[in-house]
Design goal:
With 116 residues, the protein is α+β, with helices and mostly antiparallel strands. The chain has a three-stranded mixed beta sheet with strand order 1-3-2, covered by helices on one side. The N and C termini lie far apart (33 Å). 8% of the residues are buried. InterPro entries: P-loop_NTPase.
Length: 116
């Protein structure tokens, strides 16, 4: 399975029940994106949606190009972008430096997503 059509088919048809350990009580997959400001988290989401939807490219996340000031980070709050019925990408605000405060913020965001 190494071509884009094969991979997109696999992702679109992915089911937690397909694993030998079953779904372990989960009914969805949240792929949380964390990282530094302007390092492409939102652009990654745009690319994933473009490939899976197989249509015109759209800027779902309103990501800016570096020449438009996009290297400063535009995401100010946690935003979810569904990929499939059970799979969702989560765009989180970027950090300036990976210090204790920002690490605690990431953990709080993860905790929030677990309770939703």
């Amino acid at each position: 399975m190494d071509t884009i059509p094969e991979l997109t088919h696999y992702i679109k048809n992915f089911k937690l029940e397909d694993f030998s350990s079953r779904n372990q009580g989960y009914d969805r997959v949240l792929l949380q994106l964390f990282g530094y400001l302007g390092h492409g988290k939102s652009s990654f989401i745009n690319t994933c949606k473009y490939v899976l939807e197989d249509g015109e490219y759209q800027n779902y996340t309103n990501a800016k190009k570096p020449q438009e000031g996009g290297d400063q980070g535009d995401t100010t709050e946690r935003v979810t972008y569904p990929l499939t019925d059970i799979m969702t990408l989560v765009d989180n605000r970027g950090c300036n430096k990976m210090n204790n405060y920002e690490t605690a913020e990431f953990l709080a965001q993860l905790g929030k997503s677990m309770s939703e």
